[in-house]
Specification:
The chain contains eight helices and six strands. The chain is an alpha/beta fold.
Length: 203
């Protein structure tokens, strides 16, 4: 996703089990580049957490690639997210109001889909997208990709959301692959984290 114009170069430098682009997809990518019809990507960030910096790095690279990018910057709702437990005491109330906030971001994403008409929705771990927006994207023929940059044993929400995505990328393999397969997820791929050269420098 980050540099479709250099797919052949990138393929040589990626571990074999990370290469997820089929020959047919590569052909379509090359055809799109030749026609200058660049891919449109809707990037959905989480509200907060360890996956937020990763989402920011993805945004940085996508902006410098041969794609048209629009970002749902959920992090801008962080103050509202924090205001909820600062105001309420009961956990059930906190959970209920936070669910409303996630629904708001999902509805915002639905409207962005309608206006921007993306080819791909690319969501990072903890991106607050509900079932409705994912089904809406499917109805519109939009490819849905999710990068689960989490420990699958600690954060188990993947069990519910993974089946809704066309591509489910993970940073752990082996047993996690078996678990994904056991719930009917087929298009999962190992996509490890890496450095961002503009940010991470040698010591």
């Amino acid at each position: 996703l980050t540099n479709i114009g250099r797919m052949n170069e990138l393929k040589e430098g990626i571990p074999e089990d990370c290469v997820f682009v089929t020959k047919a997809e590569k052909k379509n990518i090359k055809k799109g580049i030749a026609n200058k019809s660049y891919m449109k990507i809707l990037l959905v960030k989480p509200i907060y957490g360890g996956s937020l910096p990763v989402a920011n790095y993805c945004e940085l690279n996508l902006k410098n690639s041969n794609v048209k990018l629009k970002t749902i910057d959920s992090n801008r709702c962080f103050n509202a997210f924090q205001m909820i437990p600062d105001t309420l005491v009961k956990k059930e109330n906190v959970s209920r109001i936070r669910a409303f906030l996630a629904d708001f971001i999902s509805e915002l994403t639905c409207c962005a889909i309608e206006e921007f008409k993306p080819d791909v929705i690319f969501a990072l771990a903890q991106a607050p997208l509900n079932e409705r927006v994912l089904k809406y994207a499917s109805e519109k023929g939009i490819v849905k990709a999710f990068w689960f940059v989490e420990d699958w044993k600690l954060f188990t929400y993947w069990k519910y959301f993974a089946p809704f995505y066309d591509y489910f990328f993970v940073i752990q393999k082996d047993e996690f692959f078996k678990k994904l397969g056991s719930i009917g997820v087929k298009n999962f791929h190992y996509l490890p984290l890496a450095c961002e050269p503009t940010v991470h420098k040698p010591i």
